[in-house]
Amino acid sequence: MTTTATQLEIDRERGNFKVEESHKYDAGIGLDEETIDYICDVKGEPDWIREFRKRALKVFESKPMPTHWASKDLENIDFDKIRYYLAGNKQAKRSWDDVPDEVKATFERLGIPENERKFLAGVEAQFDSEAAYSNIKDAVAKDGVIFMGSTEALMEHPEIFKKWFGKVIPTGDNKFSALNSAAFSGGSFIYVPPGVKVSHPLQAYFRINAENFGQFERTLIIADEGSEVTYMEGCTAPKFDTATLHSAVVELVALPGAKIEYITVQNWSSNVFNLVTKRAIAHENAVVKWIDCNIGSRLTMKYPGVILKGRKARGEVLSIALANDGQHQDTGAKMIHAADETTSNVISKSISVGKGRSTYRGQVHIPKHLKGCKNNTECDALLINSDSRTDTYPAITVRGDKNYVQHEASVSKVSAEQIFYMQQRGLSEAEAMSLSVNGFVNDLTREFPMEYSVELKRLIEMEMEGSVG
């Protein structure tokens, strides 16, 4: 799967603006059955979705807040003060000209739809609770590829949607997957027919524009036998003084011989709680690759996973996390081997700046009855300041004597001598620090598509500018 080199303009300052908008649909503050009824009525959803949501609400209410992980930070979330559904329109526009001016102004500042015209096979732009714009290139649609918002998909393609929805990530998986199941809105739905290889990436932009808001998009991607698809998402929000919640669920299904590449560059502002559940099922000879870049947010808890269900399936997670002052990046990966000769690869790079904290939390499981399974896990951390913190919690369980695993971890600090050397050659301290950090992640950024590699380096440079001195 290849992508065309271009540059995605979604840097931090580009995202820090707010467009005033009057929402036509507003479910109010707090989440109860009346909120769910409002959402279902506005969307015109079938009874099975209403029942699904209400069951999920009971699960969410019954589950306690996690008492491990970053539990102290989670205490700052007040679910009763969050707005769970805000929308200007229920239906995504197919023509950019039909998008409301205030929403159009927002996404034009983020580089949409210029990026679509340049190299994307399709693009979806979500504004708060609903997609404001969704389109797919005719050439791709003619191959039978479906790309639309999840709201539309459950109405227009129930035979595909219902078969896989909630099957990869059950409602009761964790408190936040239950919350998403109760309040989900927006997100992407993709179906790629057997043997179809989508040569250009499909992309979604998720924008939180409102204050005291929760965004709960639900993404479901199904790659049928022998098909290939690359999906890229960018996330932004303006800076508010109050907490904002982003709690998405992403389910991927790679049927035999299929390949899915899922790329994320999150660029949330420092008031966002980013609590996301992402998981894939890989059938025989299928490949799932998560590429994850986590910058910004107050707290991120995200552990993309792959259930390697079929023989010779392969799962891969490549992740970069940068935690600045007041930020905690709690990220990692889960690899569950459930068939012979399956392979998993986890490479994690984290950078802690100022009083920022980075945590790697991983799980690899290979049961005793399997044979020929392989796992490689690498966790490397870089500390920028003496107050920076990094933690690594790898949980690797390998049973039996016919499987192979290797694990490597390192923690290093930026060398004062190295910074001094670069300053003597005309670089500022911030430029020298940025060069060191980019050198630390360089071997991993080679795995990113060109356009995201360029964007990632720019974001790191911006983070370093205010972090030294």
Structural notes for this entry:
There is one protein chain. The chain has helices spanning 12-15, 33-43, 47-62, 71-74, 101-109, 114-119, 138-141, 150-156, 158-164, 175-183, 416-423, 429-445, 450-465, and strands spanning 25-26, 86-87, 122-127, 130-136, 146-149, 188-192, 202-207, 214-215, 218-223, 228-236, 244-246, 249-254, 259-268, 272-282, 287-296, 299-302, 305-308, 314-323, 328-337, 343-352, 357-366, 374-383, 389-398, 404-413. With 469 residues, the chain is an alpha/beta fold. It folds into 2 domains: 12-302, no CATH class; 416-469, no CATH class. Helix 2 (33-43) packs antiparallel against helix 3 (47-62) and helix 12 (429-445) packs antiparallel against helix 13. The chain is globular, with a radius of gyration of 21 Å. The two termini are 43 Å apart.
**Total of helices:** 13
User: Gap between N and C termini, in Å?
Assistant: 43 Å
Q: Beta fraction of the residues?
A: 35-45%
Any low-confidence stretches, pLDDT <50, length ≥5?
Answer: 1-19
What best-fitting shape do the alpha-carbon axes yield?
globular
What is the helix content?
Answer: 25-40%
**How many beta-strand elements?**
24
Mean pLDDT: 83
Characterize the main sheet.
Answer: 12 strands, mixed
Gyration radius, in Å: 21 Å
List the keywords:
469 residues, alpha/beta, 2 domains, twelve-stranded mixed β-sheet, ten-stranded mixed β-sheet, 25% helix, globular, disordered N terminus
Which helices and strands, and how do they pair?
Elements lengths: L11 H4 L9 E2 L6 H11 L3 H16 L8 H4 L11 E2 L13 H9 L4 H6 L2 E6 L2 E7 L1 H4 L4 E4 H7 L1 H7 L10 H9 L4 E5 L9 E6 L6 E2 L2 E6 L4 E9 L7 E3 L2 E6 L4 E10 L3 E11 L4 E10 L2 E4 L2 E4 L5 E10 L4 E10 L5 E10 L4 E10 L7 E10 L5 E10 L5 E10 L2 H8 L5 H17 L4 H16 L4
Parallel strand pairs: 3-7, 6-9, 7-10, 8-11, 9-12, 10-13, 11-14, 12-14, 13-15, 14-16, 14-17, 15-18, 16-19, 17-19, 18-20, 19-21, 20-22, 21-23, 22-24
Antiparallel strand pairs: 1-2, 3-4, 5-6
